[in-house]
Amino acid sequence: MSTMALVFPGQGSQQPGMAEPWQDHPSFARWAEADDVLGLDVSRLGLAAPAEELREPRNCQVALFVHHIVLLEAWQANTPGSGPAFVAGHSLGEYDALVAADVLDFASALRLVDVRARATQDAADDMPGTMIAALGFEVEEVTAACERAGAHVANDNAVGQITVSGTVEQLAAVKAILAEGKGKVRDIPVGAAYHSPHMAAAVGPLGEALDAAPFADATVPVVANVDAAPHTAAAEWPTLLRDQVTSPVRWRESVLTMRDAGIEQVVELGATAVLTAMIKRIDRGIDRIAITTPEDL
Questions:
Q1: pLDDT in tens, 94-103
Q2: The Malonyl-CoA:ACP transacylase (MAT) domain covers which part of the protein (predicted)?
Q3: According to the CATH classification, is domain 129-188 in 3.30.40.10?
Q4: Domains of the chain, residue spans
């Protein structure tokens, strides 16, 4: 029985030229397929887009999704018979996890990611906001500060690593409240208050696409962001992914769910090693492997 989980990071893990080292792998063909599916030059985003262009929400989400699938299929080809016991993804990465678990095919998931990216950008334009990172604080401290300021916990990533969404004014109030504590607060350079009620306008457009998507029952349990619980039923995902847009990512709890179910090793597939660092803070006893280049296979 496998004691390994596969995980996929979200926005912020992208790197300019991240696709270039993988051009010799058969799975690199997914970039050309993405070009055809969306009618866009998605390949250029992975190969040649500068950092600023790659940070734009639609470009970032689409490019990262495709890149993760290239890495997934390269890893699968290199480790036949080494399937995971669980899969999970952080925010955007949850869509890659669904492909890894055979809940969605590549093209269907890519179309959903494109709708999600455009819908969340439109929501950000309608209700501007941004994010901060609260480092070294207990989640209860940050939650209380958010309640006082009208802001929202967006990601519970690891012990002492929490992100908050809100307006500039709300986040200034959170900073002032947390200044009394021992931790640090840092700005996150994003133009939206992700995983909060600021994204409510995105739920409708994304929901229509989710209702039409061909979800299948999972071949491997997927631990969902919104409840940190494993799911296998196809019918659950339209609601889970709707809720994900406006709900916190419960990553710390998701890792503990997998650990408590017997996971001893986590393999992260991404352009940079993000989640393995978080997992180290959550439980140093979990073995961590990050696949970011072909040499890591």
A1: 999 999 999 9
A2: 7-297
A3: no
A4: 4-125+197-296, 129-188
The catalytic residue among 25, 90, 195, 198 is 195
Asked if 195 is an active-site residue, the reply is: yes
> pTM score, two decimals?
0.95
91 is an active site residue: yes
> Hey, CA dihedral for 22, 24, 29, 35, is it positive or negative?
positive
C-alpha angle 265-269-271 in degrees, rounded to nearest 5: 140
Domain 4-125+197-296, CATH among 3.40.366.10, 3.40.50.2300, 3.40.50.150, 3.40.640.10: 3.40.366.10
pLDDT at 1 over 80: no
Catalytic residue, chosen from 13, 43, 91, 108, is 91
Query: Looking at the predicted structure, is the pLDDT value of residue 286 above 80?
Result: yes
What pLDDT is stored for residue 57 in this prediction?
Answer: 83
